[in-house]
Fold this sequence. Notes:
By secondary structure, the protein is mainly α. The protein contains 17 helices and no strands. The radius of gyration is 18 Å and the shape is globular.
Amino acid sequence: GGPASLSRFRGALVAGVLGDCIGGEFEGAEEVPMESVLQHLSGLEDETKGNGVLEYSDDTAMTRCVVQSLLTRAGFDEQDLARRFAKEYSTSPGRGYGNGVIQVLKKLSSSQLSDVYQPARDQFNGRGSFGNGGAMRTAPFALTFPDRADVKRFARLGAMLTHSCSLGYNGAILQALAVHFSLQGALDLPLQFINSLIAEMEEVEDNKDARNDARILKEAEKQEVISELGNGIAALHSVPTAIFCVLHCLQPREGLPESYGGLERTIAYSLALGGDTDTIACMAGAIAGAHYGIEAIPQSWIRCCEGAEDADVNAERLHKLYHQL
Ligand code: 8NA
Ligand code: MG
Ligand code: MG
């Protein structure tokens, strides 16, 4: 489809869920042979499986809160979103949340809270979380606001409800911008896509907080993807990795079945990196889905993943809202 077509919205939201559900199998694994990934993926085509057997985790649980809040409020409302995060956590605490963020979600349930951003600021002795939990749920902002300044502003505020460290919320901005540009068809010219992201992020990170916080994490070493970009739970070590997965898989790659299209390649490649596979595949899936559209996603994969059908319905609602704003 053309820029911001319904197919791209559906692709982005559904493939994000798929990355989370399918990637959960390998979360935390140090080494994941491509053979195991392909075996896991071909298992999804088995007719006897299906109907949501693969459960979604924190990534999708929180993304669903963002979607519902944006749709209900027809825009960003931090009080409403904070309430939804807290309620979701108290209803289903076993979705694999990060250890730190649980404290924030518990505090957000308190009715006496006067500033919904305060619990996040208190994390890690006041430094705030640099985890990728803000970035993993940020795609809906790109699917709601056509204006780039709005995408950046609300992706940042949406992340700051749990991640007050600049590495955490700037990771969310980067991921939202990647979905935003992909939705416009920018991945047809990959170099321009990268340059646009770099130019935007240079502006976003041109301040003291961002420069100081960058020192909290060691600089990446020089070696292949995992040591160069990372596969861990820090936003700085996973959002660039997710973007790389999408770019790398724009073309056929050795070791991946020839029958695979770009979206299947992207998910498979993300899983084979190991580490925080559900979150990296969720983020890469959202960017790739916005590029290839819903038609690129195998029906059998959709049937296997909890919440995928819901995401498809909500994508249509977001598409309407986007074209009204
Ligand atoms: P978070 O805010 O709790 O951060 C995740 C973790 O990062 C924390 O538990 C800390 O260990 C560490 N961390 C973050 N900020 C700091 C800091 N300033 N100083 C020291 N340590 C810090 O949770 P989140 O929402 O960001 O979640 C991130 C990821 O963890 C998600 O992918 C989620 O799925 C989860 N998770 C990951 C794994 C895995 O194996 N990679 C397993 C279970 C859960
Ligand atoms: Mg998860
Ligand atoms: Mg994860």
